[in-house]
Amino acid sequence: MAQPLYNSLQQKKQQQRKSFAVLIDPDKIFPEEVKKVVTLSIAAKVDFFFLGGSLVVINKIDEIIQQIKSICDIPVVLFPGSPSQVSKYADALLFLSLISGRNPELLIGQHVISAPMIRQSGLEVIPTGYMVIDGGAPTSVSYMANTSPIPNDKNDIAMCTAMAGEMLGLQLIYMDAGSGAKNAVSEKMIKRVADNISVPLIVGGGISTPEKALANCNAGADVIVVGNAIEKDVNLIKEISEAVHS
């Protein structure tokens, strides 16, 4: 299966160009708000929309993607919290394996269930090592995953976990402190991981300022993902995008 989006991420990494993704949770956005977020994202030159959540109560994924596509050509990447969060209208899907935990359902079980549907969708599939990092507060992802996050000061555990993910053939590593985290992933941990893997590194959770986004980029993150902070203040799209692209 062709991987144009992943190839673009690899190329940007080689060129040391950073990317910014706006995370949209279908449960937390109304149709009338989508247009505003997309319009601001176009102006700010946002690189991607990530779409998904730990728990999607009302399945509006198809509707939201089609609305985004009617306005712009920014790629929409599915960030699924369950096998039901799949849409043929997206551009790619992060096939998440929760390598930081020991829950077999999220290492391979749910993947077996969703594989036929994903294959039929024709989506670009990007195998992704998903690492939940302790953000200082209980989050939806840690609760739904029924697994403990990596302690935020255990940099070597994070490094070894990411290295193992890459050795297993995963094409991205995604470090996430979770939506609503009090503390973002530390620069020390990001640098420790980034210095020891060759695949693109995504970092999200708890990033609420342009300064934090820039610090994470300088530490080695290739893609910065922000969702919760933008839900509270959409004007952060412009400020964070400028910091990431600087």
Provide structural commentary.
This protein has 246 residues and is an alpha/beta fold. The chain has one domain: FMN-linked oxidoreductases (TIM Barrel), CATH 3.20.20.390. The protein has helices at residues 4-14, 31-44, 61-69, 104-121, 140-145, 155-167, 187-194, 210-219, 228-232, 236-245; strands spanning 19-24, 48-51, 76-78, 92-98, 124-132, 172-176, 201-204, 223-226. It has an 8-stranded parallel β-barrel, surrounded by 7 helices. The longest helix is centred in the middle third of the chain and has 18 residues, at 104-121. The radius of gyration is 16 Å and the shape is globular. The model has no long low-confidence stretch (mean pLDDT 94).
| Weakly predicted, low-confidence segments | none
Specify Rg, calculated over alpha carbons: 16 Å
Strand order of the biggest β-sheet:
1-2-3-4-5-6-7-8
CATH superfamily: FMN-linked oxidoreductases
Tell me the major beta sheet.
Answer: 8 strands, parallel, barrel
Helix content, binned percent: 40-55%
Please tag this protein with its features:
single chain; 246 residues; alpha/beta; TIM Barrel; 8-stranded parallel barrel; 10 helices
How is this structure best summarized?
With 246 residues, this protein is α/β, with parallel strands linked by helices. It has 10 helices and 8 strands.
